[in-house]
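Lecture notes, continued. The same structure-token format from the folding unit now serves as the input rather than the output. Read the line below as a description of shape only.
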């Protein structure tokens, strides 16, 4: 059996099991399996690996994309420079190699959303592991950005002191937080949505539900919107290539 899975907490929203289970069925890979491993702490990872010697690869989601790094033997170039890991390959000798496939997913999502209309300024909501990849992807494109965080020490703004002008002038806004994820579908990041315009682009890394309140508020103001489905699909396929390299 070749076993794969996802670690994080909570995992009820994740579509990874359904995605890979269908992929394995479609490709006739009857000796492959993909499961959720909801860990109360990242420190439980060694025990998980010891209990499942046939576990070949893992995806990593909130809140462990950064916390898992000290437990890995090596990092890919992208993971090292981004400072976050969402894909782990377990080598035959047991070495754990961390990768970041969020980046390739973000590149595709930004291409799909912006269609060549590159804004000069962006707002990134959140400062966790997903935000690290967003910041890297924006820097690649030469898009300057400001960070909005609950913690004043981590961002340029907090949600309580975010100027309306910053929203109006930042034509790209990326929600890199889990706010609005199922089952809390009625929630949205606290920003002044009244300052959005039809020239704005909103990217939500959340894909469950497909239309979050964040995106819906943007849609109501005429903004271009895209959810996290493209990013999810592209990063999943990138993970699969890494596990089979």
């Amino acid at each position: 059996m070749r076993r794969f899975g996802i670690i994080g907490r909570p995992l009820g929203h994740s579509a990874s099991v359904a995605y890979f289970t269908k992929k394995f069925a479609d490709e006739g890979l009857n000796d492959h399996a993909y499961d959720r491993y909801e860990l109360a702490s990242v420190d439980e990872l060694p025990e998980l690996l010891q209990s499942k010697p046939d576990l070949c690869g893992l995806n990593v989601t909130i809140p462990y994309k950064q916390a898992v790094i000290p437990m890995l033997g090596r990092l890919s170039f992208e993971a090292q420079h981004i400072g976050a890991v969402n894909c782990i390959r377990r080598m035959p000798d047991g070495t754990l190699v961390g990768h970041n496939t969020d980046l390739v997913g973000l590149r595709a999502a930004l291409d799909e959303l912006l269609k060549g209309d590159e804004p000069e300024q962006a707002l990134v909501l959140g400062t966790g592991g997903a935000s690290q990849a967003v910041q890297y992807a924006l820097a690649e494109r030469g898009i300057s950005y400001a960070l909005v965080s609950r913690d004043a020490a981590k961002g340029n703004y907090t949600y309580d002191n975010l100027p309306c002008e910053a929203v109006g002038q930042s034509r790209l806004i990326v929600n890199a937080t889990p706010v609005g994820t199922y089952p809390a579908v009625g929630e949205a990041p606290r920003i002044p949505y009244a300052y959005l315009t039809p020239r704005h682009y909103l990217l939500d890394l959340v894909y469950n539900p497909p239309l979050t309140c964040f995106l819906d508020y943007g849609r109501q103001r005429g903004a271009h919107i895209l959810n996290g489905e493209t990013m999810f699909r592209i990063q999943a396929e990138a993970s699969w290539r890494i596990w089979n390299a």
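Point for the exam: The chain has a mean pLDDT of 97.
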